[in-house]
Amino acid sequence: METLIQIMKPMTTNGYRVNQACKFFPCHDGMEDCTFCFCPLYPCKNEERGGKFIRVNNGKTNQRIWDCTRCNWIHKKETVDKIFELIRGKMK
User: Among 18, 30, 40, 84, which lies 20 to 30 A Cα-Cα from 3?
Assistant: First the structure.
């Protein structure tokens, strides 16, 4: 079974794991580490990272959802490296 690191390794550029084939690339300004394309902490509800609740009205529903488009924390190489370090520590 391939690990996430093995899958992402061929896509490594300058130490960053990127997926240039993604139709949303680049999704954050200059902070592209695509290991966690979708944040595993969603919805973190941490407004200090740039996220916020927004109201969405699609004609049928009027609901609040967590919008993290201004958060780039999970796309920073240091963050991804730290998460991998924590995962490896738990696996030992």
Answer: 30
Q: Count how many domains the chain has.
A: 1
Span 10-41, pLDDT tens digits: 455 566 677 777 777 777 666 678 888 788 88
Task: State the residue range of the domain holding 38.
Answer: 4-91
Whole-prediction pTM: 0.60
CA distances to 33, 56, 74 from 14, rounded to whole Å, are 10, 38, 18
Tracing tokens 């079974």 back to the chain, one arrives at 1
Do residues 29 and 73 make contact, with C-beta atoms less than 8 angstroms apart?
Answer: no
The angle subtended at Cα 13 by Cα 11 and Cα 14, nearest 5°, is 150
Give the integer Cα–Cα distance in Å for 29 and 24: 12
Whole-number Å distance between alpha carbons of 34 and 12? 10
The token pair at 54 is 């927004």
